[in-house]
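Memo to structure team: turn this sequence into structure tokens by end of day. - J.P.
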Amino acid sequence: MAIIKLSFRSSVWAVLAKDAVCEIRTRYAAGALVMFALTALSSVSMAMAGAALPPELAAALLWVVLFFCAMAGLARVFVQEQEAGTLLGLRLYASGQAVFFGKMLFNMALLSGLTCLVVPLFSMFFAVEITEWLPFVAVLVLGCAGIAIVSTLTAAMVMYAQGKHAIFTVLTFPVLLPQFLSVISATARILSGGVPEFSEWVFMVGYDAAVVAAGILLFDYLWQD
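Reply from structure team:
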């Protein structure tokens, strides 16, 4: 029987739609992300007992919560394929780059939904006032995109490993650290009433572009091996 390869665009949307349907049915990743976010925010809020946070600490706390929420759920994008035995089907019908972009878009959608939940709760729990919403949203988009892209790559690396989730976090954090520090600095400037410097914007955009390029170049090797 002949194997029909889908076009690149069709493959990307097919992978994204399949993951979305699976997540709607199981709600595993979304449930893990939401529960971790609520637990972390409420625990820190009670520990702070209403004390005001300086902008630098508030920015670091926001991104730490987003990062560890991502670590709690984003590794599932390839683990579920291994558990369900669908890896061979994906390899037959879609190229490595199509799978990479489909999984990356799914992770970005999950993180975007999580961010829409976390930011209002964060602002309410810690009495953080955000005046510059446009640059704040731009920083959130760039930071979450970096987390989603790197998480997709490292999830593919660890899908056959023992102790996947621990290794996933250990591998992801060092790669994300430059972007992590940059978005924390940019967020702190915004919470202080200013805007990030041009060099910070260039670095954040450049980092995301660089990891996308790395994914395009390397993912075929990770996927086929």
